Every structure is written in C-alpha cells, then in structure tokens.
Amino acid sequence: MITNLLVANRGEIARRVFRTCRALGVATTAVHSDPDAGAPHVREADAAVRLPGAAPAETYLRGDLIVRAALDAGADAVHPGYGFLSEDAGFAQAVLDAGLVWVGPPPAAICAMGSKTAAKRLMAQAGVPVLDALAQPTEADLPLLVKAAAGGGGRGMRVVRSLAELPGEIEAAKAEAAKAFGSDEVFCERYLPTGRHVEVQLMADAHGTVWAVGDRDCSLQRRHQKVIEEAPAPGLPDAVRTALHGAAVAAARAIGYVGAGTAEFLLAEDGRFHFLEMNTRLQVEHPVTEAVTGLDLVALQLAVAEGEKLSAAPPPTNGCAIEARLYAEDPAHDHRPATGTLHRFELTVPHQEFDGRGLRLDSGVESGGTITPHYDAMLAKVIAWAPTRAAAARRLADAVARARLHGPTTNRELLVRALRHPAFLEGRLHTGFLAEHAADLTAPDDKGAARAALAAALADAAERRTPLPSGWRNLPSQPQVKRYRTSDGGESQVRYRLTRQGLQADGHPDTELVEHTPESVALRHGTIRRTYRVARYGTEVFVETSDGTTALTAVPRFADPTAQAEPGALLAPMPGTVSRVAAAVGDAVTAGQPLLFLEAMKMEHRVVAPADGTLVELLATPGRQVELGTLLAVVKPSQEV
Predict the structure, then answer these.
(1) What SS3 class is residue 160?
(2) Chain mean position to CA 157
(3) What's the CA gap between 125 and 264, in Å, rounded?
C-alpha cells in the first residue's frame, strides 16, 4: 500500500493529485523551485522539498534531485503528473531502482512510445492506421507538419506550406525540441488543416484488462496546444467511435501498457483516422472524462500501481463535459505570453475544486500570486458538465466570463467567444478552428472599452471625492480628461463633465450617470441600466460587467520623455531568455524576417524586423535573460540608410 506520495510536478496537477490523496488517506510530499516556494501546491502538501533554482532544467527536470527528495521525505511512491519528466523512461526506471513505487506505465512502455517515429512503426505493425513519416517531402505532400519525435504539448512543431520554408522550420523545431525534451530529433508528416484531434482515454492494469474510458475532442488548439477539450467527442458515428476505441486498446496491448494513458488520433473529414501518438501519462484534459464517467482517474492510477485489478469494463458515459484552459497570454498578439502579479482570481458562480460535476475549477494559482516566465502559461482549467453539449457550453462560457480575473492579459475573451460561436455550437470542429475564426474571436470591443473607460474615470472621480454636481456656478466647468490604454494597445480618452443636469460625456450622448462610488458605477445607456465594478491596482484598472472584464492602464497626463523608443527599436515583448540569434549587425533585413528568438513559458517566440532596412544594432546574445521592454536590436529603415 502507498502511504506517502511525492508528486514530481507543480501547479494544478500537483494539487489535483493531492486532492485524491487526501480522500484516500495518503500522505503527500511536494517539490518546488525557488519561485514556487510560496505556491499553493507547496502549502497543501504534508511536506515539501526545495529544488534549488528557477529554470526547469535545474529543478523539475532533475530526476536525481527528485528521487533524493522522495527518499529524504520518507515517500514510498512517485507520481509524475504531466509534462516535465512524466514521459521519461530513465526517470521512471530511476524511481523503481530506488525501491519506490512508480505511478505510471512500465519504463519499457514509455520507451516504446517515447519516439513518435518508432511508435508509428510499432503501431503500423499492430494494425493501427498511421500517417507515414516523410523522409523526402515533395510539393505533392504540402502542407507539412514538422514534429519533435520526443515529447508533445505543441513544442517543436511547425506548419510548413512551401518547401523553401522547410529547412528553416526544421532548424527551429529542432532547437525548441532539444530545449524541451533533450532530443532534437524531428520528422515530417502531411498536415491535415481541417482534421479533428480525437483521443481515447485508456486505463490498464497489470492483469491484462485494458479499458477504453470514452473519447474526447481536443481540436481547438493554438500553437498546436489544446485550448478547449470536451467529452465525448461530438458527432462521431458509432462505427467510427467503435473503431477508434478498438485501435486505442490494440495500441495499449501492443506495448504491454499499464496505468493511465491516451491514444491520440487525427480524424479526417471522410471519417478515416490515423494514430498520432500515445501519451504515457495522465492528460491535462482528464477532468472531462471524469465528469462524464464519475471516475477518479488518479485514484485508479494509484490502485493499479498497488496491483489492484480493474473491473471488466468501465462505466458508461453520461452527459457532456467541456474544459477551457485559461492561459496568461495575448491572443490578439500571436498568443504572446504575459507575466506579472495576479491580483485577483476567483470564480463567482458556485463550483467545486478538483472534483465533481456541474462546474469544476482546477487551478495552480491564487490571488496575489506571481506569473513568471519560467513555466507553462496555463493558469487554470474550468470544466462544466451538463446533460447536453449546448448546456455545458453555455454554463462554461458564463462561468469564464464572470470570473474575477485581475492581472496579466489572458485568453479569457477568446474562450468565451469560442464557446458561444455558432460553428462551435454546431460541432464544426477542426484543428484550424481558432485560426479560421480569429477575426471574430480576437476583434477588439471598442464600444465596450469606451464605456469601461468612462466607468473607470467616474470611479476615479468618486475616489477623489469630486462633488456631484461639480459646482453651482452659472459658467460651465472645464471637462475632466482621463486617458486609458487598452489591452490591445489602443487608447481611450474620456472627456466628461458632472453638472446640475447630470453627466455630459463626449461620445456618450445617451448615457446617464445613476450613481458612482470608487468600486462601482451604474450607468443608464438609453433605457438599459448597467453596473460596472471597478478595481484598481496602481495604474492597472479592471472594469467588470456581466459580459466580462475590460483591462485598462491609466495613462499619465504628461508622457515620460525617457520612455520614447527610437524608430526601428525592437523591445522585448515579454520577459524571457534569448535562445537564438538569426541575423548580424550590418545585415539587410526585410519586414517580418526573424532576427532573434525569445524563450518564455516553455515556448519559443520570434522577434521580427519591423520594416525593410539594415540591422544597425544588436544587443541580444544567446542565453541572455531580458525583462519586458529591454532594447534588443535596432533596424534602420531602408529610406534612412
């Protein structure tokens, strides 16, 4: 029997495993990097062991330190979570060699699936349909997908639409894969832009029983990483579903699989499917399967690791569940990651944490925490269950929209719009969904932002105790002027007067002020009254309505002359580490050409030339850590050269 479990991970997955351990009476041990010393998963564990440093390579990817931590803390088992070392056969073997229980599949099974190219060959031999790896791609094979042979999560993946792009994209994929997985092996396969990403949850014991625990659709992705997942996969014909489940079970049996895993497939429009990979671990999206089956997959992992037998078949699915991943990133700017203080984070509708049907929250963050560039950008997962898919989508969209989320830019608005989009509700899903509908999902709400800025200005007036009305003079008062910068980079200027006749605001002729305090402003727009809740943290302002939250930054009346960047200057769009430099001083460059790459939140991001010209200054060097706004390079436009 397992008595003390160490979770070799962080954030929400560590907390999720701890929740099951508490229910089973199993003691828990956490590990943490220095930035995570005060993280929720550390406080919730019975014991915690420090991994000195910040970067994953010196902390959560140090298998030797984690095994030593387990032994020192008196743990008798290790759960890897997902990501980091969860699919590292060498780590699994090291855990077993130390006399500890490994809560995962046998190292040999991990090794068999560890290389996607080797896994494809093995699955083909087992009769599972695969997309062949292309040794010498031709024009007829386009578009292509370059993929890392080891690991997943969208890292080391590139879409290539012309053969001329292929060498550069292969090098980029190899560099990212080497940093993420310790292997730069990549391969090419055909890219199906309208294919669906469908997967089957597996659970197997050491006595020969293999379950196909339902299926999921994970087609809504950005940068080849999942954003919205659901169970069961909608609209699958019974014959296709049966064949998918059969192929997944065959894949597991072919490698003697034990534990929780997922077989992932690409489903074409004609109903044919191809094996992509097997994730030899618990998936991020496992809560949707738990919601529709009532199972605790972590409890089953522990039971299987203790040698227990599964029953003959899993329970049937009931209803529909959808999961939305909240990321600290800006979808309007190529999903650029965001860092900083998370001032407030809470769901305002009734929910459970890490368990249950209805509405569920799995979060690794809390109000007052700091989002750093060292780890993945995911803040939390919100999961909604309902008897029907439409009801689950409605419940989830409402919960995400109403969440109090004050801090770095997130993808919250994209999630809400996607869940309410007609194409999503009709089940017209494919892996290019977010790109196809990007204009609808990321368009700025100028009218909403203008009203939010007006509410912010009026709340500020209440804080300053500006009287209402502003005076009893016969002469009109000068208008109050406030400027705010919006999250999409735009600016909203508010000009208003508070007179005996009420509010007079430029651009808002039909708006009446009902009441205002520093925290709340009620406005009547025509015949509709709306209440705006306002929260301020220094210059950051967050204005909430039932439709969502608008993030604003108060702009000072007088600009700082030292803050003006020279023309052609390239500033770091985020904190991160310079991973590669792709140009040299004196090079002629073209608009959009990558000049250097920043690594942040486990992904590589391009910094490109703003215009045709000459690179006249380059301050970035590989390995240099930079803060937001750091000057990286200067391009002198062609007309100035």
Answers:
(1) strand
(2) 16
(3) 17
Alpha-helical segments (H) within 255-285: none
Distances in Å between the alpha carbon of 582 and those of 170, 428, 561, 585?
14, 39, 32, 11
> Residues 147, 116: contact at Cβ < 8 Å?
yes
The CA-atom distances, in angstroms, between 498 and each of 111, 326, 456, 473, 504 are: 70, 39, 15, 12, 6
Other Cβ atoms closer than 10 A to 477: 13
**Torsion angle, alpha carbons of 109, 112, 114, 119, to 10:** -130
- Name the one residue in this structure whose structure tokens are 């997955």: 13
> How far apart are alpha carbons 5 and 13 in whole angstroms?
14
Give the whole-angstrom CA distance, residue 266 versus residue 399.
30
Report the first-to-last Cα separation within the chain, whole angstroms. 73
Structure tokens at 264: 């992932």
DSSP state of 308: P
| Among 548, 520, 516, CA closest to 449 | 548
pLDDT in tens, 30-58: 999 999 999 999 999 999 999 999 999 99
Which residues 6+ apart lie within 8 Å of 535 measured at CB?
A: 343, 344, 406, 519, 541, 542, 544
Which two tokens mark 157?
């993946």
pTM for this predicted structure: 0.89
* Helix or strand run (H / E) with residue 79: strand 77-79
Give the residue carrying structure tokens 């396969």: 189
Name residue, tokens 């292929």: 166
CA–CA dist 79, 601 (Å, integer)? 23
Q: Which of 587, 573, 589, 591 is nearest to 632 (CA)?
A: 573
Distance separating alpha carbons of residues 229 and 231, to the nearest angstrom:
7
Structure tokens at 254: 């072919």
Full DSSP string of 322-381 = EEEEEESEEGGGTTEE--EEE-EEE--S--EESS-SSEEEEES--TTEEE-TTS-SEEEE
DSSP 465-499: T--SSS---SSPPPPEEEEEEETTS-EEEEEEEEE
Give the burial class of 92: count Cβ atoms within 10 A of its Cβ; 0-12 exposed, 13-18 middle, 19 or more buried.
buried
The helix/strand/coil state of 604 is strand
Closest CA to 622 of 589, 640, 595, 592: 595
User: Coil, helix or strand for 188?
Assistant: strand
Residue (of 375, 247, 395) closest to 319 by Cα position = 395
The residue assigned the tokens 């006399």 is 99
Among 432, 430, 418, CA closest to 323: 418
Residue 483, strand partner residues: 493, 555
- Grouping H, G, I as helix, E, B as strand and the rest as coil, residue 190 is strand
Return the minimum-mean-pLDDT range out of 29-33, 425-429, 559-563, 600-604: 559-563
When pLDDT is cut at 50, 70 and 90, the band that residue 627 belongs to is confident
What are 102-123's pLDDT values in tens digits?
A: 999 999 999 999 888 888 888 8
